[in-house]
Design a protein that fits this description.
Number of helices: 8
Oligomer: single chain
Number of domains: 1
Structural class: mainly alpha
CATH architecture: 3-Layer(aba) Sandwich
Largest sheet: 3 strands, parallel
CATH topology: Rossmann fold
Radius of gyration: 16 Å
Order of helices and strands: HHHHHEHHEHE
Strand content: 5-15%
Distance between the termini: 29 Å
Shape: globular
Number of strands: 3
């Protein structure tokens, strides 16, 4: 199936330019791309199908790489990869020499944190937000955490400390 809207996205600035009426179609095209590619390469299909609209919305509101997105399970960042200039290599995801199946700081300036499994993102986000505040920065730090993150002690440690260290940390429970 043709994906003209997704084809037009070279980076987050292109997501912002789309008329709101086109966003449901963009979400549909992203889902088609995820299913088409991951049915061949393997990968984390379910988590990514579940964050399509959320990731589109984040890229409409915030400005990566200035603003920082931390996906607690970064294998649900495939939509983020598609919207940040990696669509042309998406067919290589999880293949030798291809895109990483997780966020990877060396892969894109839009990936501020590289981790795979649950529990680390909120603590890292707290560190980034605290450092931002200490240097007087204005960027946003946004952590997307799922239920698995809340089984980890490091997440609870971050929750216990967030109010004492920063007033500007956005956490989305997905």
């Amino acid at each position: 199936m043709a994906t003209p809207l997704l084809d037009s996205i070279q980076g987050p600035q292109d997501v912002k330019k789309l008329p709101s009426k086109d966003l449901p179609r963009l979400a549909e095209e992203i889902r088609e791309e995820l299913i088409s590619v991951l049915s061949k390469t393997g990968g984390h299909l379910g988590p990514n199908l579940g964050v399509v609209e959320l990731t589109i919305a984040l890229h409409r509101v915030f400005d990566t790489p200035t603003d920082h997105f931390l996906f607690d399970v970064s294998h649900q960042a495939y939509v983020h990869k598609l919207l940040t200039g990696r669509r042309d290599r998406f067919h290589t995801i999880r293949q030798a020499g291809g895109l990483n199946g997780f966020m990877l700081r060396t892969e894109s300036e839009h990936d501020c944190f590289g981790a795979g499994h649950a529990g680390t993102a909120l603590s890292a986000a707290l560190g980034m937000a605290t450092a931002r505040d200490m240097r007087g920065g204005k960027e946003h730090v946004i952590c997307l955490a799922g239920d698995a993150a809340f089984t980890c002690g490091i997440t609870f440690e971050a929750l216990n400390n967030v109010a004492h260290h920063t007033k500007r940390l956005i956490t989305i429970l997905n």
